[in-house]
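Example for tutorial group B:
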């Protein structure tokens, strides 16, 4: 007991001290697979839809397509093989996705960059997600020594760019990219202009090769020598691009 000898000037009543709640545990970083499982769709049979990601193991058998690239800058052709993996086979979510690419050629001058490029592109394919950006990146590579013309009047700025066109063609085939197509009315108008231009003009052009009228110029949009002047307007007979809209 404590004896108070001085006069009490003021006082207060202390409330019972409540215990301090424990600090919340630090959130543990969840793995990609756990986050993916939260938003995963389910098939009718109750199984989850399999999405492409970097840890998807390579099956023993893949579906492949091989494309030949023959350029005037090399004596030997290049053969590009793109293998696809089939996701969710036999279901409504079935989809083909590119999984790996191989490039073969007798020209050993290109061996190092071929190996490096195939490994990088294959790694991007296996990573999953939107891989269509590879097409634009590859098609934008220009050879400092100059490009070359393909049969039909299409200009190719480099071998790498042609590889981009090959990948684009393959992605269009399996449905990952849409094919640029013109409606029937515009296609008929282009064909009529082509016939009329051929009837009017007979001059020769070193780069036109039969598919389009002689004297056609290079199109900045599709890199094809198919641009003609009709009715005061430059129009491409290949992709339909026109300065007049």
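The residue assignment follows.
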């Amino acid at each position: 007991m404590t004896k108070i000898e001085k006069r009490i000037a003021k006082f207060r009543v202390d409330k019972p001290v409540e215990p301090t709640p424990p600090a919340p545990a630090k959130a543990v970083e969840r793995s990609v697979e756990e986050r993916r499982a939260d938003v995963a769709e389910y098939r009718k049979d109750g199984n989850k839809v399999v999405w492409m990601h970097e840890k998807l193991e390579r099956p023993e058998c893949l579906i492949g397509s091989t494309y030949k690239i023959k350029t005037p800058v090399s004596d030997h052709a290049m053969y590009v093989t793109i293998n696809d993996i089939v996701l969710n086979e036999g279901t409504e979510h079935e989809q083909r996705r590119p999984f790996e690419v191989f490039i073969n050629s007798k020209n050993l001058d290109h061996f190092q960059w071929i190996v490096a490029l195939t490994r990088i592109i294959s790694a991007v394919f296996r990573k999953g997600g939107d891989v269509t950006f590879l097409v634009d990146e590859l098609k934008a590579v220009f050879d400092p020594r100059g490009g070359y013309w393909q049969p039909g009047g299409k200009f190719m700025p480099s071998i790498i760019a042609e590889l981009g066109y090959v990948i684009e063609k393959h992605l269009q085939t399996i449905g990952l990219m849409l094919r640029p197509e013109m409606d029937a009315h515009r296609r008929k108008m282009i064909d009529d202009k082509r016939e009329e231009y051929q009837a009017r003009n007979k001059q020769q052009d070193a780069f036109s090769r039969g598919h389009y009228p002689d004297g056609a110029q290079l199109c900045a949009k599709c890199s094809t020598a198919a641009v003609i002047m009709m009715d005061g307007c430059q129009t491409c007979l290949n992709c339909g691009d026109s300065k007049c809209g």
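Residues 111-127 form the longest helix (17 residues). Compare this with the pattern of hydrophobic and polar residues in the output above.
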